[in-house]
Amino acid sequence: MKRSPPSYTSSTSSSDIDTDSDFSPCFEFEQEQDTKPIVSSPPTSARSTPKKPKTNNQKSPSTSPKKPRIKSEPNTNGVWDGEKRALFIDEIIALGYRHANLDELASKLGMNKRQLVDQLVPNKSNLRKKMVMAAKSM
């Protein structure tokens, strides 16, 4: 049970407020311990809902009979065939090629950037095609 916060209202109207005074609304109110209301929780028996007694007319839920399993065709969605492997490798090479620092890689391999680009271009007889064909034949 939630309580709504107490509302603090003022009995003064806007005409009673002195606008020329040095009133600062940034002060703190001190509350005494005696002024706080004491709220006790109701006993546990009052909070809990009473349970209805079970009658003999009510049946317990029974389990339904199990259905026989029917064998279906194997799921080909998760099977890796040559075409899927080739497409996967081709996409990985394309993504890596786009995000690779080819200048740095060429200097590590002792080649120029153009030689690396030639080996990664699709639809040519190059390293990329050999890797795709190898994945397809696995």
From TrEMBL:
Q: Spans of biased composition, class Low complexity?
A: 1-16
- Which parts of this chain are annotated as the region Disordered? 1-80
Q: Where is the composition biased (Polar residues)?
A: 55-65
Can you say what this protein is called?
A: Uncharacterized protein
This protein's species is Kwoniella bestiolae CBS 10118
Its taxonomic path starts at:
Eukaryota, Fungi, Dikarya, Basidiomycota, Agaricomycotina
